[in-house]
Every structure is written in structure tokens, then in C-alpha cells.
Amino acid sequence: MTSSASEGGASTRVWVVRAGEGGRYADNFEEKSLIGIGFNEIGDVTGMDRDALFAYARDRVGSRGGNIAGQIHRFANAMAIGDLVAVPDSGTRELLYGRVVGEYEHRAEPPIAHYHHVRKVKWLGRRNRDPLPDRILFSLGSLLTVFEPSGQDRLAHFLESGDVPAEPAIEETRSPEADGEDSASTGAREQEARNQELIGKKVAQLGWAETQDLVAGVLKALDYATEVAPPGADGGVDIRACRDPLFLHPPILKVQVKAKPTTKISPDEIRQLNGLVDRTGERGIFVATGGFTETSRREASQMGIQLWNLKRLVDLFLSSYADLDEATQELVPLRQIWVLEDSETD
């Protein structure tokens, strides 16, 4: 049912499997030693070859069947034991990576979230993906749930050794849509998602002061007056923000900013910010380009502290870009381009 690891021209085949929006289930994948996908309209496909799977999917979901079947086929049939798999975590800029060690399974009771289609993986670690060349990062930004990114040999070398090999004389040009099964994903949303991968890299590279200014600029674009703490001891609050420019009428936002893209925020740091927030008229926001531990997210939710990981910050930056002041735009300068809107596929 599986193909050889050498098929496709790479000595070690590399797959990207998304763990929900923004990689929200990456920690669960790691904990359970699994990868999983949804597409629950399609049941158990054990033993189905490509043609049978496509016919079955089109019978179940109509015009969407080809797109769904292509991704399930890659997950269940094309992916081989021994292949490398990488799971992006958009909140941390990390790639969780490991080797596939189990055949395709369909579990009646999903072990993770809503994922019935699963495979066992031996996880090997995590790597910050920003040292990768932009063209590989661009391919990693695809919206597809299961795909082969470009630069297979270079990406495999990076995952296995941590080193990025020199640029080849002729760069591989394969794209995730090369098999023609996912043409619906090549429009505006796909282009936007891939560009966000590169924008996320740029934001993650900002220093602490620049990140603080970026957050303050976003808040101003959202119609908040802001006060930015000067360099030095800030008492745990980097930015104060309020709808009232005189800060006389609550709520007042107290914002802590951590620009450490390789370090997740611990629960202790969440508790420290919480201790500075007066519940009668203040709200807390913790911004961390390295993301948060699962315990931190849980405690922040209980305390009412809003968390902005890197993905959340980038999303807010992009959605408010036209309203940002010039100084904030210059931190991550962008140029507007026009692309065709996605066509309807249902």
C-alpha cells in the first residue's frame, strides 16, 4: 500500500502534515506519537488504491472529492514507513519532525481532536525553520493539509542535521500542487498563506524594542491610545493602551511583550502579568513570538489573560496594515499585489 521512500527523486521523502489551524494540535501529535488528518466525510480507506479512493470520495462529497481524496491518498498510500514528516507550529516558528513508523489506520474513536485518519510517528525533535531558504519557507506556507514541500533533499538534510546545505545549481521546482489534484488551493488564499510564512519569519527576526513598537502600532491602528515603556525596568508592563486617550475611562490594557522566537512562555510569566492587572478596570495581554506552553495557555484562559502568539500578531498586523502609521509599516514593509480570488469549488 505504501510507496518506496526514494520515489519522487529525493533520498529521503519529506511530508508536511498540518496539525489544525496554526498548528494548534502539534503538542498533541507529539504527546501521542501520531499524525492525523480530518476529512471525516470519508471513512476508512484501508486497502483502497488511488482510483478507488477518488471514486469513493467523489461519491461521498461530490465536487470536493478530488481535493480531499488527493490529500487522503498522500497520507494513506503515498507516505511510506521511514519517510520524514514535519508539522509546522505557526505560533512558534518551529517544525516538529520525526519518522513515520506505522501504516495508515482509521480509528473509530479519534485519539486527537477530530482526527480519525492517523499514522504512528517516532518524533525526533523540533527545529526553528527560519534558517531555511525563502523559497522552501514559501512552499511550507501552503494551506494543504498533507503535501510534499519543495527542496526535498535540502529540507531532509536540515531536519536530520540542523544544517542548511548550499544552494544547488538547479533548484527543485516541485510544488505541492504538482499532481494536479489540488488546483482549487492555488488562488488568493493559498498565495496569502504562503506569503504569511515569509512575513512571519520577518516579524520573528525583530528585536524586542521593534516588536514592542510593532505591537503598539497595531493597537493604535485598532483605535487605542498607547503608552510605551521606555528602555530599562518596566515593572512587567511594556505597553499601556486605552480607548480613552487620557486613560481616565477603563478598560486599560496592560501588555507584556517577549520577542524570543525560540522560547515558550512559562506559567510563571503569565502569573506575573496577572498579578499586575486590576480586574475592576484593566485587562492583560501577553505577546510572545515564541508561543506558550500548554499549561500557560490553560492558566491564561482561567485568568482572563489574552495571548498573542506569533501567528496572532502577524494576523492582526496584516488585517490592520492599511491603518498603521508609517513608522510601524516600515518595521515590516509590504507591497500590495492583486491576485485572482479563489473560485467556488462546492
Short characterization:
With 346 residues, this protein is an alpha+beta fold.
Describe this protein with a few key phrases.
single chain, 346 residues, alpha+beta, seven-stranded mixed β-sheet, 12 strands, 33% helix, elongated, disordered N terminus
| Percent range of helical residues | 25-40%
Structural class: alpha+beta
Order of helices and strands: EHEHHEEEEHEHHHEEEHEHEHH
Q: Tally the helices.
A: 11
Could you please describe the fold and organization of this structure?
The chain has helices spanning 26-32, 50-61, 65-78, 134-140, 152-161, 188-204, 208-221, 267-274, 294-303, 310-319, 326-331; strands at residues 14-17, 34-37, 84-89, 94-100, 105-106, 117-128, 146-147, 225-228, 239-242, 252-258, 282-288, 306-308. With 346 residues, it is α+β, with helices and mostly antiparallel strands. Strands 1, 2, 3, 4, 5, 6 and 7 form a seven-stranded mixed beta sheet that branches. It has a five-stranded mixed beta sheet with strand order 8-9-10-11-12, with helices on both faces. Helix 2 (50-61) packs antiparallel against helix 3.
